[in-house]
Amino acid sequence: MNASSPVAPSSARATQSVRAGYALFILTLINLVNYLDRYIIAVALPEIQKDFGINDAQSGLLGTVFIIVFMLASPLGGFLGDRIPRRLLVAGGVILWSLATGASGLASSFTALLLARAVIGIGEAGYGAVAPSIISDLYPREQRTRMLSYFYIAIPVGSAMGYGLGGWLTQTYSWHAAFFAGGVPGLLLGTMAFFMPEPRRGAMDGPDAAVKLPFMEGLKGLGRNMAFWATTAGYTLMTFSIGGLAFWMPTYLVRERHLWLEHPGRVGLVFGAITAVAGLTGTVAGGWLGDRMDRKRAGGGLWLSGIGLLLAAPCMYLAVNLQDTTLTFAAIGVAQFLIFLNSGPINAAIVNCVPPAFRAFAMGLNVLCIHMLGDAISPTLIGQIADMASLHTAIAINAVPVLLGGLALLLGAKLFRESVPRAQQG
């Protein structure tokens, strides 16, 4: 008996590790499809404009309507995610948005396409707010930044696939075909999510972690959590800028830089490849460095994120002011690397500075803020500035929010040391 007693704990840890790895794998694949669906429309936009005869401001609404619905539904998704099995929200949301992506390809009018994009926002809200809280309950605090960075690797890879797949299918077949192809993987993954492990809330935060919390009490505590709000402010400024740039950059490269006018889909392939490489390396580096910085001092990961944004701002400005095409793409790649450094650290900071019982709602509220004041308005604003001046001017001034976002994250890093103990105490 004594010889065999150590085996049981070891076997249990191995089983837990496999279950956690499976859930992280499924959630990451879903996040990849999430961003693939979002960015197909960016590279297909020139053809959609031709078919429906819409201007830049109207085109920006395709991004804005999706984000508005997504952000408004996210707090509700977070509220439910703190109270019902989260895998059900994940599975149902993925299946809904995948059906709506396929329906986008059936749209025969601008209004129908707007409606389909709105439904995609509802589906994604059921998933986006709860996935980080699931991961935080699968892995201990000292591993969360790294594990969340693996989850957020899907952002650059999925975005790149959206640009690449959307560009190739639009060029080879039509923009309708691009949306049809984008909807299929999510239907499969949504079904798999029904069988995903559901960890206990606060499972990795110790016996004193608050796993049950009255909503109004949690809301008051969140209102006083200045580290959360400083982090959200920095995240919002960054999201405003990169959301608009991601939507408009392929169109800018074709229209104003006159790249591959005969084959505009190639812009999506090149831009997507740069996004994939820079985003993948930046996200992995951010997860590894963020864990190291957090072990050295509270808020270390946020400090890394703030420095990354401060360095990214001049690179974004140079990207549209350098005349050489190679240097332009190099500046884009460096800026993306520096921005994606913060994917793991900034989200780890959010889940770590709030009680486990309130994490899903906190993430949902964060989603509301970063999109309501961020990329919900930036595609349309950039389109309006482009109509009044030029797309070059509209994109160039978007380096400013990134700079301000970096300063806000540095402030959040200073505040983080005080807020974490309060969050752990509930």
From TrEMBL:
Pfam family, one: MFS_1
Subcellular localization(s) per the UniProt record: Membrane
Keyword entries, A-Z: Membrane, Transmembrane, Transmembrane helix, Transport
Membrane topology, as annotated: Multi-pass membrane protein
Domain Major facilitator superfamily (MFS) profile stretches: 23-417
Chief location bin: membrane
Official protein name in the record: MFS transporter
Transmembrane stretches, start-end: 21-41, 61-81, 88-108, 114-135, 147-169, 175-195, 226-249, 269-289, 301-320, 326-344, 394-416
Top-rank taxon, per record: Bacteria
